[in-house]
Amino acid sequence: MYRKILVALECEPADRNLLDHVTMLARQMHSELLLLHVADGYAARHFHQLALAESDEMKADRAYLEAAATRLRACGLTVHTQLALGEPSKEILKVAAAGRFDLIAMGSHGHRFFGDLFHGSTIREVRHKTTIPVLLVRGEKS
What we know:
Rossmann fold; 142 residues; single chain; alpha/beta; 6 helices; 5-stranded parallel beta sheet
């Protein structure tokens, strides 16, 4: 059913809970995973237009993805990584559509009202603009 799962990561500790859930699901479904992070800092958003060098933040994001993939591969899973650049919801939707994914998995912080106004926009945009099922996993409370 879920042969290909796109896992949108924020490169934060809250990703742990999402990765735990996705790992169990991928084992049961024999799914292939794509760990995706969308870098959205100034350098990332203007990388191609201004021919910028990869920022330290982008390098750290790439290393984070590879470390997470290595841990999942050690569990016997097929895992790929991708660092996208730009506006997170647009890039997640673009990658999901192009890759013909069966599921998009994302972490939720469990914000309330004002937090949702600022942090919930990526989830809101993705779930309203895709026909692919979306799994939301609440991150652990800090």
